[in-house]
Specification:
Layout: E1 5-9, H1 14-25, E2 29-34, E3 44-47, H2 53-63, E4 69-72, H3 85-112, E5 116-120, H4 123-126, H5 134-154, E6 160-166, H6 194-205, E7 216-219, H7 223-226, H8 228-232
Parallel strand pairs: 1-2, 1-4, 2-3, 4-5, 5-6, 6-7
Helix pairs in contact: 1-6, 2-3, 3-5
C-alpha cells in the first residue's frame, strides 16, 4: 500500500516535531520544512524558511504532485519590544502570511490527494491579548479568519482546512511562568505536551474527521474556560 504523504513545517522542534513523529509512526511519508536540519529520524528534510514560496516548491518537488496532509506548525517566538515595528512585520510574515503561503502553494497537490491542512494557532490572540507580544497575538488571531476562508476555498476541491489552538504547552518555544506540573491558570493543573497537540492534529488529518472543516479545536486544558486572571485571583 502506498503511504500517505504529508508536509510538516516547523518539524525540528515542539509541536511540529511531535506531529512529524506521530505521522511517521502511523505509516506516513513525511517531508519536514525547518530552518534547522535537525529533524526526527525518517523525516525527509527541506532546510529553509517555510514562508518562502521557493522553499515550499522544493518540498513539492520532493513529495510529488499528490499531498494528503499539510501541517502549518512553523512559528516565530515572541521577542523584542512590543513597539518594534520590524518585529511586528516579521511576526506577521512568519505566523500569518506563512500559513497562507503554505496553503496557497500546496492547495493543488492537496486537491489531487483529497487531503487536509491543519494550521497551528494559539489561544493568545483568539481568546487572550498579550501586552508583551501584540504582533504574535494579532497574527494568531488572524489565523481563524484565514482557516475559515481557506476551508471555503478548499471545499469544492475536497480539501479540508482546520485550526488547532494550543494553550500552555511544555515546549522550548516560550518559557513558562510556573512549573509545568503546577499551573494555577489551567483547570487541569498542568501544561500540555507537544504530543497531546500532535494527537489533535493527527485526528483532524485522519479518517475520523472527514466531515470536519473550518473548525477550531482548542487544546488548552480548559484555560480559556476561566481565563488566567480568574485563576490568579
Amino acid at each position: 500500500m502506498t503511504p500517505r504523504k504529508g508536509i510538516v513545517t516547523g518539524a525540528a522542534s515542539g509541536i511540529g516535531r511531535a506531529t512529524a513523529q506521530r505521522l511517521l509512526a502511523t505509516g506516513w511519508r513525511v517531508i519536514g520544512i525547518d530552518l534547522s536540519g535537525d529533524l526526527p529520524d525518517g523525516v525527509e528534510a527541506i532546510t529553509g524558511d517555510a514562508a518562502d514560496e521557493m522553499v515550499l516548491r522544493r518540498a513539492l518537488t520532493a513529495v510529488g504532485p499528490e499531498v494528503h496532509g499539510l501541517v502549518c506548525a512553523a512559528g516565530m517566538m515572541p521577542r523584542g519590544d512590543w513597539n518594534d515595528r520590524a518585529e511586528w512585520d516579521e511576526a506577521l510574515r512568519v505566523d500569518l502570511s506563512g500559513p497562507y503561503e503554505q496553503i496557497r502553494v500546496l492547495l493543488p497537490a492537496l486537491a489531487t490527494g483529497r487531503g487536509s491542512a491543519v494550521v497551528v494557532g494559539s489561544i493568545v490572540g483568539s481568546a487572550e491579548g498579550s501586552a508583551r507580544a501584540p504582533a504574535y497575538a494579532a497574527a494568531k488571531a488572524g489565523l481563524g479568519g484565514l482557516v475559515r476562508s481557506m476551508a471555503l476555498i478548499g471545499a469544492p476541491l475536497g480539501v479540508r482546512v482546520n485550526l488547532v489552538e494550543p494553550g500552555a504547552i511544555d515546549t522550548p518555544f516560550d518559557a513558562p511562568r510556573f512549573p509545568a506540573d503546577q499551573r494555577p491558570d489551567v483547570p487541569l493543573g498542568r501544561m500540555g505536551t507537544a504530543d497531546e497537540v500532535a494527537g489533535a492534529i493527527t485526528y483532524l488529518l485522519g479518517p475520523d474527521a472527514t466531515y470536519v472543516t473550518g473548525a477550531t479545536l482548542r487544546v488548552d486544558g480548559g484555560r480559556t474556560l476561566q481565563g488566567p486572571q480568574a485563576a490568579m485571583e
